[in-house]
Every structure is written in structure tokens, then in C-alpha cells.
Amino acid sequence: MTAPRYRRRKEDRPQEITAAALDAFAEKGYAATRVEEVAKRAGVSKGLLYLYFKTKEELFKAVVKSVVIRRVDALIDTVETTELSSEEFVRGPLLSFMKKVPASPVAVVVRLLLAEGRKHPDLADYYYDNVVSKGLAAMHRVLTRGVERGEFRQCAATEQPHLLVAPVMLSIVWGIVFAGKALDTDALIETQIDMLLANIRA
Amino acid sequence: MTAPRYRRRKEDRPQEITAAALDAFAEKGYAATRVEEVAKRAGVSKGLLYLYFKTKEELFKAVVKSVVIRRVDALIDTVETTELSSEEFVRGPLLSFMKKVPASPVAVVVRLLLAEGRKHPDLADYYYDNVVSKGLAAMHRVLTRGVERGEFRQCAATEQPHLLVAPVMLSIVWGIVFAGKALDTDALIETQIDMLLANIRA
Amino acid sequence: MTAPRYRRRKEDRPQEITAAALDAFAEKGYAATRVEEVAKRAGVSKGLLYLYFKTKEELFKAVVKSVVIRRVDALIDTVETTELSSEEFVRGPLLSFMKKVPASPVAVVVRLLLAEGRKHPDLADYYYDNVVSKGLAAMHRVLTRGVERGEFRQCAATEQPHLLVAPVMLSIVWGIVFAGKALDTDALIETQIDMLLANIRA
Amino acid sequence: MTAPRYRRRKEDRPQEITAAALDAFAEKGYAATRVEEVAKRAGVSKGLLYLYFKTKEELFKAVVKSVVIRRVDALIDTVETTELSSEEFVRGPLLSFMKKVPASPVAVVVRLLLAEGRKHPDLADYYYDNVVSKGLAAMHRVLTRGVERGEFRQCAATEQPHLLVAPVMLSIVWGIVFAGKALDTDALIETQIDMLLANIRA
DNA sequence: GATGAATGAGGATTCATTCAT
DNA sequence: TATGAATGAATCCTCATTCAT
Q1: Which residues of chain D have a pLDDT value below 70?
Q2: Do residues A16 and A8 touch, judged by C-beta distance below 8 A?
Q3: Which of C31, C115, C170 is opposite residue D114, by nearest beta carbon?
Q4: pTM for this predicted structure
Q5: Do C115 and D118 touch (CB under 8 A)?
Q6: Cα distance from D88 to chain C (closest Cα, Å)?
Q7: Which one of B21, C125, D64, D98 has the fewest beta carbons within 10 angstroms of its own beta carbon?
Q8: Is the CB of A13 under 7 A from strand E?
Q9: Which chain C positions have a beta carbon within 8 Å of D28's beta carbon?
Q10: Quick check: do A1-54 and A56-200 share a fold?
């Protein structure tokens, strides 16, 4: 007749473990992180971890996917449903989104993919299909719509949404390698957007 | 027709080995590369490698330095000695230099630093001091000189040489992670420069 | 009839391993004993050994301590609680104890310390504090008590308990180096004690 | 027509090398001493060392023999040619000889034999035949001669020359293991001799 | 389901020995 | 002879993975 102790749902376990793994990978990188360390952080035994993920590699993939999932979709949604003008949208929601990325788990995933991607081409593909491709398409959509609406003029820059990503990527890389050195990430991104808008404005 | 077993080229060995290591690291990353593999590529025994580099880590550092050394200085030199106008310089030598970077060993080093940099803060520092800092300073010099000469107007963009680097970095990262996927690196870099120049031209 | 692969005896393992290591070290010496050999003798895998002892050196220290612990205390106890006369004590329990030493694990530890002691000064200190110092003190106590009781006369010999140890040490060394050659250890020790007693008797 | 540079005789080389090896072994022990280290100390190349000694083991044996040779013979000579009374001889030349041993290369050899002897039974045999056996015989001769001359009485002690060696051996071992801790070696040896003489005097 | 003791292949490093020069 | 660059077998140690309990 003892009161049932609180037991974490086993349905939550996988996410708890991938969350712990993300933390660990973020700190030490994939290769240098021991599975035992992940288990400890998740408050779980090694054996149980292996019940959910057959190998360390599978855990790695699950981590990447867990970060990726639904993250870009929100952006796409906003793009599609916004009622703002193109420039307002870029300066508003898009800029705000971009500023958040370098400090988000996305940066960790980028680091992992950079270090380990070669050994996991399917993962790179997955990331490409689900994040990069969709993300770039969404940004391209914003620019194209601006052109359609007569807000922007068609030019090389409106065909290269990569240019919007570039300063974000630089910020991510900088943060990974030069954790200590200051870099005004926000200013960088803003300046790039200012430049771009000034350039493509009709 | 077998290669001579003994070659006795004490002076060349270190470079031969770091070159082999660069190749190996480029393919598999640092952690996944076995020392024996590097030795084999260099046509040398494990033991000899250890004669020149006390540890794998030291080899790693030597690789980074071997790539870095004298590479940036050439750029700086060109900046200081050019007789071109600022815009001509940017569109000419600088653009040409930037286009070459993503396919150069620098990309490998970036990847290594991204993956292993956390464990070697001194190396990150070294890279920062000898490449990043100097490189950014050189670019900043170009922009500032343009302002001094009345070719450019002073603005946010002239204070952020990082923006010149951003598309190059994106190209590097893209090349590392999405080796297969095409990306028109040159166009990316060119467009960014066009945009920048249009923006800062006096 | 194969031994069970998993035994799960966490508590016993360290002692099983140090016992196996003692055997192995006794046969081959520390440097020449491979860790794997110790593991095999203990019926355990290399990995498990490293679970209990972080390095071979730590295993070495554990072996020394395992032999040392509680061995001298028994002697000291006997010294303190005996009701025999001093001479009876020396000729009885002490002599009997001394005769046993050359064939005991202590001889192995002496050999290890002789060979490896220089590299492990803390271990030499530990051995000195816990065995040598205490043991000599106990023997000195026996002699001093004899003097106090009027059984012995105070002289150089009663101040040098080392002389009781000397033939034992010779026997140990002989046994290590000349395993084959016969030496009447017991007679050696007895004669020394006879000589000593004849010399210090009041 | 240049003056001939001084060149060490090649006949001296083996001894120079064994001397260097003795030093190195004394400091680090056999296993921990690298052949290169010995070569360096001898001011000779590794290759040349191998010209004189086919293996490290052979070098080891040469070291032991180099220390042993002619050392005991001097003692035996003195024993045979002395004109002193037995007691005078023991208290004089013999005591003096014994006091010198613990600080001599013999101590190093003892240590080496203790550590490595098991792997080189032929060396232990050699040492036994040339040092131990002869040395003990010489001491036995001293005691027996004393008995023959009526200076000593025949007893257990006169049959065990080992007892003369025992304190010397203790001193050697002490010096090896407890390099730091003080021990009045001379007093130890003297007291033992006093005791012995008092005991066997006719 | 959970646990963590146990395994062993894999990889970094050392060093006695060889041999082209 | 004399050198020291070169070799590679040997050995310590790690860590992903398994499995008895």
C-alpha cells in the first residue's frame, strides 16, 4: 500500500538521454565523450542507454535529429503566415531568429557534423534535407516574394540566400573555436542584413 | 623497384610527415586517424615518426602550424605593397585570394580546429594570433585605407572585415559537411564583395 | 565445466588481483610482468583490472601494501602481551617468526622494493614507516625490556636491533638471487641469536 | 701533416662502456635504462656499443663481471699472506674491507642481481662461483685458521662465515631501498664483529 | 526493465636492434 | 670503424559493448 514512487515515464527516456548526450558532446565533442559519461548525466545506467540506442553512433544520430526536428519548421511557418512586408519581416522575425542561432544547440550540431560528418554521410544528408535545404528555401522564398511584390529588385543577391546564413555561420564557427575571444555577433548579422537590403531594395 | 628502405633525409622528414598527416587528418579527422596510418602515408615507420614528434598531439600542432606559416603573410604583403586603388585591390588580388581558400589546406585546419580546438586552447590562440587576427587586420587596413583615400565612406561595414570572411567560411563549412552537394563558392564570394563595395563606395 | 564468465565479486576482486600480481611479480619482477599476465592469473580481463587499479604502478603499490598490512602488528602484539622472560621470548616466538620471514611474501616485497624502490620513494617511505620502523622498534623494545628487568646488560648490541634482522635479510637476498643454492637459513638465524644472547646476557 | 688527434684506444672501449653502463644501471636499474643512455654516457654511438655487445643483456653481464673481477681476489690474497693474528686480521683488514663494500659498485651489482637475476641464472651462477663462494671460503679460512692456531674455539659460528656478511648485506639493502634514511653502517658491522669474536674467542 | 561488472579489440607509445652511409 | 636514422615488436591503457543478475 505504499504510495507509488514517482517514476519517470519510460517514454521520456530517449529524450532525456539525447539531451544529456547533447550537453556532453557540446563540451567534449563526440569522439572524446564516453558513453558512460552520457549515461551518468542522464541519471541512467550504461545498460539502459544501450537498450534505447544500439550503438554510440546511433545515439549521435538521434542527438542530431533531436536538435533539428521542428526547429526549421517554425521558421518556415512564420515565413508563410506573416503579414509583414518583406523588409519588415527580414528586419523583424528573421533577424531575431538568426541572432538566436549561434548560441543555440544548432551550433553544437554544426560542430559535431564538422568533426564527424564525413563518417556519417547519411547524417549529413539528413541534415541537408531537413535543415539546410528547407531553411535556404524559406529564405529564398522571402526574397522572391519581395521581388514579386515589387519591394525588391531581382539580382544576384536575391538568388543567394546563403548570404544571409554566412554571418551566422561565421559566428557559430567563431564561438566554437575562439570561445574566449569576443565577437559582436549581433552587429555582424545586422550589418549584413542592412547591406543586403540596401542592395536589393527596389 | 621497391622504394629504398633507408632514405636518411633528416631535414625533410618533418615536412614529409606533417604533409602526410595533413592528408590523413583531412580524410578522417584527427581522432579517427591512427598514427600508424600517417607513418604509412609518409613512407616511414611509426618509430621514426615518434622520433620527430613526441606525441600525436604534437604532430597535430605541427600540422596546423605548417599550414598556417607564411600563408597570411603573403596576403599582408600584397596589401601593403599594392599600387592598385582600393576597389581594384578588393576586386582583384583579394577576391582571387579568397576564392582559393575554401579548397586549400586552410579548410582542413579549420575543420581540425573545430573538432579538436577545445582540447588545445593554445593552438586556438596560436591560430587566432597568427591567422585570424592578422588576416582581419589586413582586411581592415584595406577598408580603412579606402576611407582615408576618399574611395569609401566610413560606415558599419568598413569596421567589420569579418563580413569579407563570412562567405569564405560558409564555403569552407559547406565543403566539409556537404562534400557532395554543389555550391557556387565563387559566386557567393563575388556577390558579397559586390554588395559590400556598392554599400561602402563613397 | 568452464569457469563462469561473470563472477560479480566486486569486493573480492582487488585482493584476487593483488594476489595474482604478487605471484607474477615474484616470478618475473615488476618490469617484466605484463599487466595482461596478472589479469590472466587472476582469471580476469585486462579491462577489469584497470577498473580497480588505474595504472600498473598503482597495482604495484597495492601489492606492497597488501603484503605489509597487519603483518608486523602481530609481532608487536606478541611482544607487548607476552609473559615469557626476555630470553625465552627471543628463543621462542621471535625466533620462530624470524624463521618464517624468508619464505614469506615479505621476501617478494623486498625484492620489488630493491628493484623498483627508487622510482617510488613514497612506497619506500610507506614500507619504512609501516614495517621497518615498527619492526625494529618492537625488537628494540624486547632488548630494552630485558635490560630493565636485569636479564640483559646494556651494551652496543642491545642498541642495534638491526643485528637481529641482518641474517634474515641475508636469507631473503640469498633466496632471491641463488634460488637453487642451498643455505641453512634456520641455522643462520639461530646461531646469530645464540651469539647475541650469549653476548648480552647479564 | 696535422698532429694526430688524441684518440681513445679501441681496447679501452669495452671498459668505458661497461663503466658508463654501471653508472646508468646504478641510477635507474637495468630495465629502466635505455641503451642509448649508456652510449651517450660513454661518449659513443649506439651503433658502436652494439659492435662490442651484441645485446643489452650481454652488456648487463659484462657489467656484472667487470665489477666482480679481481675484487675478491684481493681479499683472498690478503687472507693468505697476512702475518697478523686471526683476531687482528678480522679487526683490521677484514673489517676495513667490509666497511667499504656497501658504498662500492658491489652494492649496485647486488641490486641488479636482485632485480634481474631470475632472468639470468647463468649470471647468478657466475656471481656465486666467483664472488660469493670464494668470498665465503676466504672468510671461512680465516675462522678455521684461528681454530687451528688455538685462537678460536670451534663452534657453530666459526662454521658460518655468512654471519660476517649479514650486516654488510643489510647495509647494502638499506642503502638501496632507503637511500634517504640514515643507518650507521660502520657501527653495525663493528658490533657484529665484536660479538662474533667475543663468542668464538678460545 | 535496470544495473554495472566484465570483456577485449584497438590504438598510442617505447625502445632494443639493425643497417645504409 | 663509427654513426644515428630507421624499424617494428612489445606493452600499457581506453572505452564501446555485452550480459549475468
Answers
A1: 1-10
A2: yes
A3: C115
A4: 0.86
A5: no
A6: 20
A7: C125
A8: yes
A9: 118
A10: no
Distance CA C183, CA C190 (A): 13
Cell digits of residue A186: 549581433
Tell me whether residue B150 is exposed, middle or buried, using C-beta atoms within 10 angstroms of its C-beta: 0 to 12, 13 to 18, 19 or more: exposed
Name the nearest CA neighbour of C143 among C196, C81, C102, C77: C196
**Short-list D123, D142, D131, CA closest to D101:** D131
Instruction: Please give the radius of gyration of chain B, using alpha carbons only, rounded to the nearest integer.
Output: 20
B45 touches strand F (CB under 7 A): yes
Cell 582487488: give the residue. Answer: C14
Distance CA(D190)–CA(D168), nearest Å, equals: 10
CB atoms D119 and C28 under 8 Å: yes
For cell 565563387, name the residue: B186
Helices C13-28 and C56-68: angle between axes, nearest 10 degrees: 100
Q: How many CB atoms lie within 10 A of CB C106?
A: 18
Extract the C-alpha cell encoding A2. Answer: 505504499
Rg (CA), chain D: 20
D36 strand E contact, CB < 7 Å: yes
Cα distance between residue A105 and residue A21, in whole Å: 12
**For strand E, is any atom closer than 7 Å to the CB of B10?**
no
Q: What is the DSSP string of A95-148?
A: HHHHHHGGGSHHHHHHHHHHHHGGG-HHHHHHHIIIIIHHHHHHHHHHHHHHHH
User: Using a CB-CB distance cutoff of 8 angstroms, which residues of chain C are in contact with residue D177?
Assistant: 110, 113-114, 117, 124, 127
CA B200 to CA B189: how far, in whole Å?
A: 17
Regions of chain B short of the pLDDT cut 50: 1-3
Q: Among all strands, which nt has the closest C1' to C35 (CA)?
A: F12
pLDDT score for D180: 79
* Model confidence pLDDT, tens digit, residues C85-102: 999 999 999 999 999 999
Comparing every residue's Cα with the C1' atom of nucleotide E18, the nearest one is D47
| Chain B partners within 8 Å of A64 (Cβ) | none
Of D29, D110, D199, the CB nearest to C118: D29
Q: Which CATH architecture has domain C1-54?
A: Orthogonal Bundle (1.10)
Q: Minimal Cα distance from B114: which residue of A? A: A177
Name beta bridge partners: B201: B152
Which region among A161-165, B136-140, C187-191, D73-77 has the lowest average model confidence (pLDDT)?
A: D73-77
pLDDT value for C8: 64
pLDDT tens readout for residues A2-41: 333 344 566 788 999 999 999 999 988 888 899 999 999 9
Compute CA D147 distance to the chain's CA centroid, rounded to the nearest angstrom: 27
- Nearest CB to B31; choose among A31, A183, A198: A31
Does at least one atom of strand E sit less than 7 Å from the CB of D158? no
Q: Do B173 and A32 touch (CB under 8 A)?
A: no
Domain ranges of chain D: 1-54, 56-200
Q: Which tens digit of pLDDT belongs to each residue from D106-122?
A: 999 988 888 887 778 88
Q: Which 3 state secondary structure label does DSSP give A152?
A: strand
How far is CA A25 from each of CA A28, A45, A190, B57, rounded to the nearest angstrom? 5, 18, 30, 20
Best to test chain A binding among B153, B155, B177 (most A CBs inside 10 Å)? B177
* Residue in chain C lying closest to D113 (CA): C177
CB count, 10 Å around CB of B2? 4
Nearest to D110 by CA among D37, D165, D40: D165
Q: Which fold, A56-200?
A: Tetracycline Repressor; domain 2 (1.10.357)
C121/chain D closest Cα distance in angstroms? 8
User: End-to-end CA distance of chain D, in Å?
Assistant: 75
Q: For residue B70, which of B117, B24, B130, B114 has the smallest C-alpha distance?
A: B130
Contact A52, A70 (CB under 8 A): no
The Cα–Cα gap between A186 and D191 comes to 87
- Residue C107 corresponds to which cell in the numbers above? 621476501
